[in-house]
Write a structure and sequence with these properties.
By secondary structure, this protein is an alpha+beta fold. The protein contains 21 helices and 10 strands.
Amino acid sequence: MGGDVRFGRKLVLPALFLGMTLVMLRPNPSELANRLPGNTGDPALITWTLSWGAHTLPTHPTSYLNANIFWPHRGTLAYADSLVPLAPAYAALYAATHSWPLTMLLLGVGLTVLSLSAAYALGRWLTGRRDAAVLGAIAYTFSGFAVAQWGHVQLQTLGLLPLALLLLFRLLEEATVRRALGLGLVSVALVLSSLYYGLAYAVAVVVIVVAYVITRRGRLSPKVLGLLALAAVVIAVLVWPELRARTRMSDEGFRRPLDPGFGLHGTDFLRPALRSYAWKPLEHAFGYRDEAHRFFSGAVAALLAVFGAVATVGRRRTLRAKGMRLSPLAALVAAGAVTGVLACGAKLGPFSGPFAFFYDHVPGFGQARVASRLAVVTTLALAMLAAAGFAALAARLGDRRSRVVAVVAVVTGAVMLAEMAVALPWADLAHDRETLAVYRALADRPAGAVVELPMMIPRENSYRWAVVEAPRMVYSTLDWHPRVNGYSGFVPPGYDEDAAILDTFPEPAALQSAKEHGVRYVVLHLGTSQGYRLYSDDNAAARLRSLPPGATAERQGNSWLVDLGQILVTRTMRPSP
């Protein structure tokens, strides 16, 4: 009987966190299999990325970076976050659901619960209180920054950050091989899931270790140093393939523009996520900025964070007696402050910001376009200060008022959730028979590169490029043939020019470009996609009448599939994994 009670208690927190997640996400049961979170562009890119990892890693792990987009360029998976750590979970969920949208929703729910659990674990370790830790987890996981990133699964992996930092803190306090290996593996998962989080985390680690060295009068034990080195080796070995690919990209000129507009601004902490219910008047009060600049996490969390900072400074002896670990909290706040300054981007007021130096001299920062995302550590530090604030408030109320504290905690949590609730965006992903027919037909064809027309040209309309090409990438997971088309965080040299030429197919210049790319299959899409006009029946018919001798064409659903056979293929095909 006692075992059943203990087991039941262990289920309370997971059930609570799952309930919070479902309340905040509010998925519509009638649309679970039809809609992606966010808009159609980046969520579709992420769906394809995870599909590629699930498809390739079990059988061709050494070539997983050579994805089937932007043919014939290599290493194209590294044009965005590879999300390798999430691929096994995606594979298992997709095998159970056979639905791209439902799989992505379940993955998002799981990552949200992970974030709540990891932030709770860190908060409880820092404050010694369950109620304070739950409130800190809410402040972090449903912060304005986190909620605004709905649909960007790579940015929903923010739960790995508090987990990695908790392992780091515990390793610094009591070094064991198990903790070092755990730190290494979680750090790898964080770095490979999100470039931005990996960069912010690396800076945070340096600040925290330096803070520990200072507080311990310049000394760390040889055992701690050795196990930190072990964790660093694990990280280096497992991250090396992707790091090498990204370094090669930097050498080839793949760098984000250093735009001051992408930096963090002080008013960003007063901007709630778009479509906020409680704070709608604040949405545009300070001028519009996109979702990467919305860091307001509600008045309650802000007040608790202020109270936590004041109490930590003024009542250190009392709080230590209550079991709070103030030195690690101070180190985390210092890390949040440093990454917050970096997140300001190229400009810090009228001066050049430190991010500009990192952009020019530190690997990885040259590919970080949205500097404000580095403030994820700042968000975590503020959430943990909010947890400390509630712990200090509970300490002031005293143990004899435990019921009062419990009621205050429940009410506080409910108000925080209400403050951070928003109307989340969803987007349709067409997957009817007519749309998928051409991709199912390609699955039965011999190996050959594919170009899907009309191609969307990034420099002409980046949004159209995203919402039209990204779903095509998802559909390509039905056949896995290489694609000249693609959408990602970077564009290979000459892509716009090639797209403009190939769009004239079957003009001689387009046939020559197809020959140079080793294209065997040409898909002519009819009708519209995401509201954008493709080919009409008459336009497609005119193109088909001009096909070169030996080419064949079949109508497949809403598309025509043209097989050029071997008449143009001169480039050696690499086998599709």
